[in-house]
Amino acid sequence: MDSHTQIPTLDDIRNAAARIAPLAHVTPVLRSRSLDALAGCRLHFKCENLQRVGAFKFRGACNAVFSLDAAVAARGVVTQSSGNHGAAIALACRLRAITAHIVVPEDAPQAKVDAMRLHGAHLHRCAPGMAARNALSARVLAEMGGTLIHPFNDARVIAGQGTATLEFLAQAPALEVLIAPVSGGGLLSGTAIAGQSLAPGIEIVGAEPEGAADAHDSLRAGERISGRRANTVCDGLRAELGPLTFAILRERVSAILLASDAEALAAMRLIFARLKLVVEPSAALALAVVLRHKARFAGREVGIILSGGNLDLDKLGMA
After folding, report:
1. Residue 171 belongs to a domain with what CATH number?
2. Among 15, 87, 138, 298, which has the minimal tally of Cβ within 10 Å of its Cβ?
């Protein structure tokens, strides 16, 4: 079995942190008394919207790309993405001076597509949906060669995403709960492994849109659900769990909590108004979940990973 298909350990996450340290930002943790009062708990916001390419995805992409040995890296990288992971792979490959081929669904936000092109990636467009993405990824890999770096079902990527929690718990060691949005599950998996390894007893919670609730339903059913078409404004949360991330989450996550698109957009406005931060709906969903389920978090120290800040300004009328 290849090492990147095995569940990563805390040592893997620490090694990833050392590997990406010269390239990734250490992002700040912000607080807001007014949001604490609104939520009924003490909120700590890990600002991955301020990471390179505007999202936590740079951590995993950077770790995966820079973990390749020179001969393998020279053949380039293939991945699939609706946005932030693609931009992160494109930047990591540019920094390493290797080629990136990215399969991108036709409904990906234009701002994220532009970011991939900015860093010199070769884009291959496909129909929306995981089946189309997987099929074209396999074809591109066969035609172009190189190394496949899956956006979430890859131990190298998961270990890189877990580095955010290494920083978070050093910055806010009293946290009792960690909440991260869940799509394919790479961020939440890395969060769970790092969080529970460093702070046994900490609760790990996922936040998911009602219109893309496959992770919620998968954990409830005890088996991975795939093949659904997501319907949510949270464009970064439309993927489905992979076999590796499902295995991690079913063992480590206490709950996947849902919120609506309207609640995500309201939370996004709150974050802008109270923290003066630009975040995308996918990132704001974690706060939306806290506000919807106040009783669950009342009086606790709650850490929220703000996963990204890449908004399509055309759709907001701000072009």
Report:
1. 3.40.50.1100
2. 298
